[in-house]
What does this fold into?
Amino acid sequence: MTSFRFDTGGLIDRSSVIDFSFDGKKMQGHSGDTLASALLANGQLLMGRSFKYHRPRSVITAGAAEPNALMEIGEGGRLEPNTRATMQELYDGLVAKSQNRWPTLERDFGAINSIASSFFVAGFYYKTFMWPKRFWEAIYEPIIRRAAGLGHLSHENDPDRYEKAYAHCDVLVVGSGPAGLMAAMAAARSGASVIMADEHATCGGSLLREREEIASQPGHEWAAETLAQLAGMDNVTIMARTTVIGAYDQCVFGALERVQKHTALPDHDVPVEKLWRIMAKACVMATGAEERPIVFGGNDRPGVMTASAMRAYANQFGVAAGRTACVFTSSDSGYRTALDMRSCGVHVEAIIDARANAPDIETHGVPVLTGAVVTNVDGGKHGMKGIEIDRGRGHENIPCQSLAMSGGWSPVVHLACQRGARPSWDEDLHCFMPPQSDPAIIASGSANAIWSLTGCLTDGARRGEQAARQAGCRTMKTPVPKARDEASHGSEAVWWVKQSTGKPFVDYQNDVTARDLPLAAREGYDHIELAKRYTTSGMATDQGKLGNVNAIGILADATGKGIEEIGTTTFRPFYTPVSFGALGGQHVGEHFRPVRMSPLHNWAADLGAEFVETGLWYRSSWFPEKGDDWLAAMTREVLNTRANVGICDVSTLGKIEIKGSDATEFINRLYSNAFAMLPVGKARYGLMLREDGFVGDDGTTSRLSENHYFMTTTTGHAAESMRDIEFAHQALWPELDVQYASVSDQWAQMAIAGPRARDVLAKIVDIDISNEAFGFLAARQIKVLGSIPAMLFRISFSGELAYELAVPAGHGEAVANAIMHAGEPFGIGPYGLEALSAMRIEKGFVTHNEINGRVTAGDVGLGKMLSKKKDYIGRMMSEREGLVDADREQLVGVRPLNPDLRFRAGCHLVNPGDVASLETDQGYVSSVAFSPMLESWVGLAMLKRGRERHGDKIVLWDGLREVQIEAEVCDPVFYDPAQEKAHG
Amino acid sequence: MAYLINCPHCGQRTTDEFYIKGDASKQRPGTIGDDTMNQWHDYVHIRDNVRGRTAEHWHHTGGCRQWLVVERDTVSHEVYAVAPASSRTPGKTSATPARKSAARKTPARNTTSRKTARGEKK
Amino acid sequence: MADTMTQVSALDDVVVHGRFGRSLPEGPGVALSLVHPCEVVSLIAARGKARALAAAVKKDFGLGLPDMGASTTARGVSLHGTAPGQWLAVAPAAAAGTLAGRLDKKLGSMAMVTDQSHGRTVMHLKGPRARDVLAKGTAVDLRPSSFTPGSCASTQIGHVGVMIACTGADSFELSVFRSFAEGFWLGLSELALEWGYEVR
It folds into this structure.
């Protein structure tokens, strides 16, 4: 009663021996086996337990549509659940485990579900587990969660690499069966560049599974020869082990290549999977057709499979589920299985033909019972004993060890339907035909409902020529070889055997039986999309490849509607599951997003800097000395900078060079404040609004000569600001003569700040930088260290006497080191982002913490920067009522009454005595720092009518940490309010 | 959304090289002043949510960094035209603005069965 | 005046010479090298001056001003058409700092000449698998039939902007913004592991 391997036959290489294990048992197979065929060869018919009822299951198919034989493959971080054993190439050292069973596949506790099965009909979970209410979270949900899902994850890191890539071609041929091979040949001979993809490791499609002949050779030999010819053509790329998973707009296809899923120890230099985006001009969809099961009692028992699967196992792999077989069919193609199995030495007991009349096919003595149906299967985890049939004379039993079922054929139409087109039902052929709405996707062969081999070869050649023409090539006629094939292709539709005595399954993977569909219709879910979701038919990892058409037929029958009227559910990519690894490709870990490094990165690292991520950048954040934590380091850096001198890397700022005869006018339209009269040699702080009137970004622009400007933006907003500048010129004012280029990476920029800053810089610059010669906001092109071209700006973000020096990035380190050396006698020290932030907060300078997209210039006390004399981006909207309302939140400083109490940005502000709520909310804290100068935690905040409330008491409310701190509202400039130090 | 865009400067590129700003059908008002507030409000805030043909401002950030106007169909994903933003007069699309009624050809759909009322007991 | 101090490259402590990745009988699939120092200058034509600019470039530098997506080379300087009215001039150089000055002197009245020699990192990728490596990152059609010597494209690889110029049957010049260079170099190297690569 077990499955077995024939002594001879099959396309496997019997001289090669492969060791693998299944559920801990050591087994052997051959090169060319799939895991499924090797298991059958080892007598392992039982391969899994079904999802809901835990019924014993084996393979139903030999290919991609397999719903039952789902395995966990691999160990540790490589563990992959839900792998179809029919698609898994056997390899040395393969470790496979069955799923959804406990403790073992043989003795599965979950089989108890089968006993209670009448309660587990479709929709049971909408009507159960509701009482008592409190049991849901504590009891029902945890139990259901453990029972749900198929397979499990290891939760270990995947050690392998994945990659993504692009490819281009004229014609993409999907499938390498007879139609695909001919299409590829025809397109290639017409000069088209061709990519032919097949999901299997060996190309040839159905020619590997059938006994037909082409050009007087076995089909698989003709396939191998044709393949060799194609491989030798320069304009042909063959992609085996590659599933075309999706069709996208404009003839773009997604394809998943299983590069190293057939080895226990992948080469780490090579990805295990590659996700391809293929840009084609035309596609020949030679994807074949899927044979449908018939829905009858016990059609899920181990030993029952589709008729074509039984042939595939016999012809390609030399294995069979049993030594005796029956065939249950409603089409002529079932007869072929009877004949093939007979040739292999399997005794065929009978052909049970549901139709009233048998076709005219020689069966060589195999009895044919017409007008007969199978109503149940006697079998279980150990295999089949026999079948129960009904041909109008009551139930009869036929002993047999396997059963082939042939319920008709469904063209694999997915790629043609994934962009919304629907297939159409053909009443004569009993199948859904691929839509023709997209001229670039051309169905061919049995994907186009052509069932004969001769037909497929001919159609493939025609369609290949058609595709080449579509791609703009001059076509050449391709000769079609002669084939010896079946003449007979009649069929009838039998949706389900209503008189079944056992459970008749429609969707194997989700355990949906035929009766679930009329139930859905009775409950009002009679639309196919609703019936699908109510019953879960078609919703498993196989996405209904075997069951959908049967489900449609049954629903049509139950509702009295036609099949065309019921229609199919929506097709969506992916055709078969794709791993997240493949979707991420090389963009994982360090490569998840690009990293940007400052030209002074190494300089800072050598000084012991700790770095922080700011967007894509790494910025030096603080420079610890002997055991400093960040607070100690920052405090030391601020005190030193304000007392002596400090140097800080500000290279990450956006920098834009602007020139042109209209440069001044252009800049004047970008900034809210006046720039038209900016003197040459001067810098000016500017605000750029968004067109809706809120502040977009701030920065400093310097006029280096009449029509030559150097603009800086913030680090975080640099990309958007550049884009906005380009928009303003190209889309709004293309008539302006202005040129601009990003020079952010061309210049290393450093701030030198503190009372001794001038003394330090004087040693390295070539100009007079006394206060008279180079006053506050001076900006000039200079030289440093003799010959290095540089720009010096007297601007201050710290509030100290300060300069920013820009030098070409490749000289950054040398210049920074020279400054450190020159500054030694003055006590120079580096300072990082923490210290820079603390100092600007002490000075009440705003950053994007305050400029957060909801804030106007007026809100942050910069209302005077909104010119009334010109149009600029955001001018009009900045004046609308809501943006000038007196009740708006305005920038203030906040100081806790107890200076040692730390609070966080994000705190809300509440009047003392009020309970914090949306109604009592007065605003929020936008920035916080420990101020070394005030020896207190301080913050900048946006407070309703804030400018009127200096001196008021306020409560800083932190709902996350459940902390409330009493504070005082004050001027946002905590330190040196007269701004004396910067002007010194 | 279309997968490919034919940038007039760079040729065929994938859409992930682009940044989409939004509707390009409105022209920035040429005058300022209190009496123009409504015009500005319309330019900045008011948009149609078009089912069908639209014109949008796209930026080829990953390529030539040029602003473009892309005319495309939000239903069929067809791209009709891509032109430099500077060459196009805003407010005048190259075809009549898309419309609410479904007079256009859509991909083959099973529309008949959709008309049956849902949830009705038979 | 010439900028004579040694210019530090963004890949100063990143480039490791040698052979890496898969060892195939046909040898490494690509060779990767840093071009440093290298002069890079951007040229943006002033409004209405494109024709005058083209004439001046021809006269003073012996170079044709290429169309968008094309490159021209003469006297050690290549010009790449990277955007309408915009070009990138690239000249691998022993002594950096003269090209921008020379270009500005002759062309400054017709174009904005901006030195980008420090702002860009230039690399060279060459070998039978060069196109395959690049195709892992960009959807630009880089097949020999479409992307021929003298072609260039501004595109992205791993979301990093890169200018790719085809300088020979199997050789390419790549230039990226300096700050992205380290991540780009390491990422590209990983994509070449499959066929083995050599760093010279």
Q: What stands out?
A: Chain C touches chain B through 14 residues (CB under 8 Å). Residues 50-61 of chain C form the longest helix (12 residues). The CA atoms of residues 7 and 37 of chain C lie 7 Å apart. The domain at 23-37+119-199 of chain C is CATH 3.30.1360.120 (Gyrase A; domain 2).
